[in-house]
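Notes to self, Acireductone dioxygenase:
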Amino acid sequence: MRAYYYDNVPGDQRLPHDSGRTIAPAALSDLGIKHHHFPDDLDSVNAIARERSYKNRDEIEISPSTLPNYEEKVKTFFDEHLHEDEEIRYILAGGGYFDVRNKGDEWVRIRLERGDLMIMPAGIYHRFTTDEQNYTKAMRLFKEDPKWTPLKRGGETDGNHFRKEYLTGRDAALDSIPDAQRMT
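result:
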């Protein structure tokens, strides 16, 4: 896993868009994001699933040969949105980028590769794209039946209960950090 500020330069979303300004793992934690690296260690993934009461999972393979209307789907995944559930992804093969918004509403790009497991809190604005290799195979974990309902960013979504709850928790955590130690 590697995190940095997105450069906001126009161009293919699958390019690195690396601004050269890195983000420390602690800054991701301040945003409510948890990361683990478990190469070939499904037992550790299962332990996290049990600990967080995740009962279901599926696998998704994102590539031009496995996903009908690939280019259209990848653009859809890249629309800024949130979920009302925590989002847990374990990368089984390939890689990709999750972009999340920090407190200043800047995009933070998180590069995930095989063995990376990331947990994003409910209510965080984010988006996803494959990388230039156009291949990501990921395990998605769910508390109940598998569902993936994106709520696009907008006035109504900004007022969503889960969004407000996320902001309250994030801001309280960030407010407890002295200015000299703040990373976002």
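- The longest strand covers residues 87-101.
- The two ends are 18 Å apart (CA to CA).
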